[in-house]
Design brief:
Strand content: under 5%
Oligomer: single chain
Helix content: over 70%
Distance between the termini: 57 Å
Shape: elongated
Order of helices and strands: HHH
C-alpha cells in the first residue's frame, strides 16, 4: 500500500466515494448522450449537429480521462482498472459514432 499522509488518509474514503460517484455519473451521462445521437446523412444539417455533439462529447471524454489520471494517485488498483475499462468501452462507443475522417484529393 502506498504511503499517504495521515490527514489525507482520514479523508481518503470520502475522497474515493466522491470521485467514484462523480465518475459514474459522468459515464452514464456520456453514454446517454451517445445513445441519443441518431445517425445522420453526411452533408445534412443534422450531420452538423451530430458532429458538434460529438465534439462536445470528445472534450468531456478528455476531461474525464484527465480526472482519472489525477485520481490514479489515490485510487485502489481495482477501482482504477474498473474506471479505465469503463473509459475504454465508452471510447469504443464514441469511435463507432464518430464520422470517418475526410479525405482531400489534391
Amino acid at each position: 500500500m502506498r504511503y499517504v499522509a495521515p490527514v489525507i488518509a482520514t479523508r481518503l474514503p470520502l475522497l474515493l466515494q466522491a470521485f467514484l460517484q462523480a465518475f459514474n455519473a459522468r459515464q452514464r451521462a456520456a453514454q446517454q448522450q451517445l445513445r441519443a445521437l441518431a445517425p445522420a446523412d453526411s452533408g445534412s444539417a443534422q450531420a452538423s449537429a451530430v458532429t458538434s455533439a460529438l465534439d462536445a462529447l470528445a472534450a468531456e471524454m478528455a476531461a474525464q480521462e484527465a480526472r482519472l489520471a489525477e485520481a490514479s494517485y489515490y485510487l485502489p488498483s481495482y477501482d482504477l482498472k474498473s474506471c479505465t475499462a469503463q473509459v475504454l468501452v465508452r471510447n469504443a462507443g464514441w469511435a463507432a459514432r464518430a464520422p470517418a475522417p475526410c479525405c482531400f484529393h489534391l
